[in-house]
Amino acid sequence: MRCIATLILALTVSTVFADQTIDVADHGIRPGTDCTFAVNRLIESLADRDAVTLRFAAGQYDFYPENAVERHRAVSNHDNSLKRIAFPLFGHQNVTIDGGGSVFMFHGRISPFVLAQCTDITLKNFTIDWQRSFHDELPVIASNPDDGSFVVEVDPKRYPHTIKNGNLLSEKYDWQDRMGSNIVFDPKTNAPIFNTRDYSINFSAPYTASHAGENAVKISGRVRKSPPPVGSVLISYGTHPTSRLCPAIHLDQANQTRIQNVTIHAAGGMGVIAERCDDVELDGLVVTSNQERIVSTRADATHFIGCRGTIRLQNCLFEHMLDDGINVHGAYVKVVEYLGDRQFLCEISHFQQWGLVFSKPGDRIALLSRTTVLPFFETEVTKTRILNELRLLVTLAEVPDRMPEGPLSMENLTWYPDLVMKNNTIRENRARGALITTKGKVLLQDNAIASQMHGILIEGDNNKWYESGGVQNITITGNTFDNVGFEGGAVYPLLASPLLNETQHMGEGHFHRNIRFTDNTIRSFSGHLVRARSVTGLTISGNRLEFSKDYPAVTDFPAVDLEYCDDVTIRDNDAVGFDRTLVVQTSDDCSSVSVGPNSGLDRP
Amino acid sequence: MRCIATLILALTVSTVFADQTIDVADHGIRPGTDCTFAVNRLIESLADRDAVTLRFAAGQYDFYPENAVERHRAVSNHDNSLKRIAFPLFGHQNVTIDGGGSVFMFHGRISPFVLAQCTDITLKNFTIDWQRSFHDELPVIASNPDDGSFVVEVDPKRYPHTIKNGNLLSEKYDWQDRMGSNIVFDPKTNAPIFNTRDYSINFSAPYTASHAGENAVKISGRVRKSPPPVGSVLISYGTHPTSRLCPAIHLDQANQTRIQNVTIHAAGGMGVIAERCDDVELDGLVVTSNQERIVSTRADATHFIGCRGTIRLQNCLFEHMLDDGINVHGAYVKVVEYLGDRQFLCEISHFQQWGLVFSKPGDRIALLSRTTVLPFFETEVTKTRILNELRLLVTLAEVPDRMPEGPLSMENLTWYPDLVMKNNTIRENRARGALITTKGKVLLQDNAIASQMHGILIEGDNNKWYESGGVQNITITGNTFDNVGFEGGAVYPLLASPLLNETQHMGEGHFHRNIRFTDNTIRSFSGHLVRARSVTGLTISGNRLEFSKDYPAVTDFPAVDLEYCDDVTIRDNDAVGFDRTLVVQTSDDCSSVSVGPNSGLDRP
């Protein structure tokens, strides 16, 4: 009797709790067809189910926008719009999508994955690509510095174009793009060319495109210094507000998300954008171009705004993006007006954060001066009312006895994540390796970074991007930085400094604190190590700098450049192969700076 | 006892049923402030109430977008977007908004009135205007036909501009408009100049704007024939998809709506756009420019798509619009694919109808050939499933035994309204007076029409605008047409003809039927009366044509031009003052045409 009862119980438990695997082919989802409609329906049918795995047999599955589910979506750092969605997970729980090594091929303006208000979702074992990229790659086959003109080769299949009224128009899936943002890549390095900004073209100014032979177009326009050299590749990547419509994966208030063994070859925006998510794990996420292209995503490989819990990245490769490898931050929201009664009329500061869920009841927030960007009061949110994507009403538990003069902002203290990055590679991309502004605990260990701009940027600003989060506790150790900063100029493996504009100034107290940059290896044509401003608690130790001849030497800037820093230790660093002693420079308002012993690096 | 009971009953009834008037000032809504937030809240508070009047004391009330309620809105014949709304009536019943003679002044991109899923709403006694218009009015002060250049005066207050990279940019509330669609008006007539198309400028082609003295800008660009003459006014009105964002009044599935004694001076789109509405009454609606401007609305004064019941217009004045006075029609929706099981994958045909509510269960629809635009099967809709703004699944009660070859469309037969237009004036506008394609009963009586294009256009097309509705029963009587058609060419007081393209052809059977054009008075520089094609049942009688010298005579076209028409009577018409006998021309495929007796009008 008891045995049978146990068996029945076991069966029941099995039915309720065990992972149920669905072979998507049973739902008409097969390689070689437009799967959008069937995938939409299947995912919708899972809304009330738990512990389900969708399994794809290996193959190429195609997704088109025409029949796709559509929602108006605000996506931070992208262009908000009515978006068609291939995998629309809204409120789903405990779902695994296992691509089985498949390629998910997208066509036109469609968002591959949206995970909104989901919990415990795993995406794994597939590749995201687009049949036609959102950018264009145009090899330069002639270049005339005298008149600033140049000729590009236009592949009629991969980058079909039309010339109309002297404008070069890129033919996309069902729209045309004007020439817009642009950058020049070097096909030998698959990275931006050294000093690429010299070759940028102002396509907002009048220019003329004309046929210059079969599949060749001559462009006469306003170049910054010189037309791009022969052998380079001009990358054109669209104009606002239609150039960031389609991130590959959008995590919106999604908790406990895992992305494993996923490759992203392209996106009309970022690879992964996460906002107000609790715990995100990326393991084996690869963002790279496909065999036919130099460039991968239109924007950052990964980006996290207002998240919490732990963001964990390991064994990832991010390369060939047109923007940063990773960016982790919060948002400074403007106080438009204190309405009394503990109620504030607030405004999302940056237009690409419109629609951000800034706060909910129970969140701790800081009130801060918009002039010094330093907080002066902490309390709890009791109510948030959204007026529209721009504005909201925030009611606080308490307010200061006297509201200070001058412009104010808020930041949400509850939604700053810890970050663990181990064994990742970020390289050959435009812009930075990693931007980190979070008050959580941060560990970057055993990563390889070779970005065009700063390797690691710990910034925070309340005037341009409005990315909040003076750091509290960061360890950067055991990483290698390989020729970081080949945009040229004062570019560093590590820059830690808030970005202030002319109406802002340092206040009393430092913006960032507790940054340890230790035991890293830096191969460098510039000898740059660390630049820091408004940091208290900074250790730079055990790092090895090796001279590199891979780019023209940059010798105008100190190796370590400190301004308004406190409690700094610089010791046991070793600079090798440079023709000079690298310089540690400190401003007069620095305090408690200890330098030495170091090798090849010293105060002047 | 009985008396008291009656009294109590009366009091109760009074409380429940009597109209409750709210003085908006009691809710902080006062002239001279941004009323948007308070009006939003007050209207929201009425959601569950019935029989309420909001009363405004006379004054100017201002509305700004920053704090306004926001919804993604699909608006037919406009540009869909996230819209800020001043008066957001969603699901309201039995509400009257009485402006008390006030001016409601709008600023920037905000939609004044949205009535969605409402019943029994009255809007009355107010004026809608915008502080800054959506178009620009630029007086031409120099004109050089030799090189195609011209100089415009730019009022720095009303039409502030910036010149950037040779482009003239119009500074709006919080955005810049490029030069785009344009037309030339004559300030002496407050209407488009004769043959205005000759002066149109292709701002998509390269052009150069340069300063030409204080508040003067020289434009060198591609004009169609000649630059606009000195003394005319160039009207520039934006580019797609940002030029039709803000209609003044949007009725969306709103039943029993009355608009009385309302004036509309401007709109970033149409004055009134109504879709899937049952019974709309416009009495004393005035669409006209304000004292400072020549032009009123960016698009049609009024427009009705897929409505039913009765549309009643009386005592209205529509003038100075940049598009038609009124347009009443349904929509042809494409059948993309028959999926079997009585289910059709359908697609909204025109991008400015995306999001249209085409059908709901219970609606009768016709299936029709997209080639002949003639219906072949009628049945009922049993289910509609929206995939996105473009596509929907429609399930029908029955399907033909054999689905015909060739492309198919559907039209919704349930949602065609009757139309009564009496005692209205439409004049001095770009485009047509009235477009009418509805299967309902139509009476146009005692109206005065003086439009630039056709006076009354009974069209229907399934290839360009996809406006459905071959007419069944139209009476046009007692109206005056004053110099209609001053765009020049083959323009008529009445044109009745489906618009076919080169892939379409006439089928068996006529598209329109039963049109009576009787006892109208026509003052005309061309002697044009009626052009008709594919009409059965056409009476043209008792009309008086008087020669007008107000525009250059047009003598190239017949007065009455008939093609593939049947059952036509042309009698008792009187043409006076022309230097020739006006011609009735009929094609060989006409049948049963009776001409005469007429005076000054005959077959050749």
TrEMBL record, chains A, B:
It comes from Crateriforma conspicua. Residues 138-234, 344-400 form the GLAA-B beta-barrel domain. The keyword Repeat applies. SMART domains: PbH1. This is Alpha-1,3-galactosidase B. Keywords: Glycosidase, Hydrolase, Repeat, Signal. The lineage of its organism: Bacteria, Pseudomonadati, Planctomycetota, Planctomycetia, Planctomycetales. Its EC number is 3.2.1.-. Transmembrane segments: none annotated.
